[in-house]
Write a structure and sequence with these properties.
The chain has two domains: 130 residues, 2-Layer Sandwich (Fructose-1,6-Bisphosphatase, Chain A, domain 1); 88 residues, D-Maltodextrin-Binding Protein, domain 2, CATH 3.40.190.80. The protein is an alpha+beta fold and 241 residues long. 33% of the residues lie in helices and 30% in strands.
Length: 241
């Protein structure tokens, strides 16, 4: 498993470097609709190419861009560029999501932020956040946090109003896998919308030691039990109409 983590680390480091050094016009060029339903840009395909180069030896890859790639005992679910719209608009919050599965069982997951280098790793009971640029370890994940992350907030104005009533501040940065991975560091993470494996499998595995709830169109995660219970009452136990 350490070999897979090392390969993922090397791939993410290469992607981050390539996104900085490749001609912007090539990175932003639009191609056809990808396997996940969104139009792929050059940056998506470049990230996918690098991930396939590093990870295909471990099994079949299921990518948001190209679908099924290769064969093997294990399945690797990837979102090569989580937050593509952020990248296109020069908003510094985008990365990649990688999950290694044996059948339906997740064995290992990593999520990487290409902007600041945060590289989240979950293998069994071990959670770590390293940095792809200087290999340092990120700490203080259990400190008090004053804000949460609410992905797709703009689609859910009634929920936004309820969060305001409960003094639950949030940001909506626009990269689902990355935001879920940051659940160890923020007050909470909330996602209301269409679920796709590329967006959530790796992140949810990374957060399996936290309080969480998930159904077909809702994810609630918090390291704080009281905050989690408040969010469940707001989102699950009431009619938002």
């Amino acid at each position: 498993m350490q070999s897979f983590i090392n390969s993922s680390f090397s791939a993410c480091k290469e992607i981050a470097k390539s996104l900085k050094n490749t001609n912007e016009e090539l990175l932003l060029e639009e191609y056809s609709e990808g396997y996940g339903g969104d139009v792929s840009i050059g940056a998506d395909l470049l990230a996918e190419e690098i991930l396939v180069k590093h990870l295909s030896v471990y099994g079949e890859i299921l990518s948001e861009e190209s679908g099924h790639i290769g064969k093997g005992k294990y399945k690797i679910i990837i979102d090569p560029l989580d937050g593509s719209d952020n990248f296109k608009n020069q908003f510094p919050y985008y990365g990649t999501s990688i999950a290694l599965l044996d059948g339906k069982t997740t064995l290992c997951a990593v999520v990487c932020n290409f902007v600041n280098g945060d590289f989240f790793i979950r293998y069994e009971e071990e959670f770590t956040c390293k940095n792809i640029f200087d290999n340092t370890i990120k700490t203080q994940m259990l400190r008090d946090s004053s804000i949460g992350l609410f992905e797709k907030a703009y689609y859910n104005p009634k929920t936004v109003a309820k969060l305001k009533e409960n003094n639950l501040k949030f940001r909506s940065p626009g990269a689902v896998a990355l935001s879920i991975a940051y659940a160890h560091y923020v007050k909470y993470v909330l996602f209301l919308g269409t679920m796709r494996d590329y967006d959530i499998v790796a992140g949810m595995y990374i957060c399996k030691d936290l309080f969480y709830y998930k159904d077909e169109n809702c994810i609630i995660i918090s390291k704080d039990k009281e905050t989690f219970e408040t969010l469940c009452k707001i989102i699950i136990l009431k009619d938002n109409s």
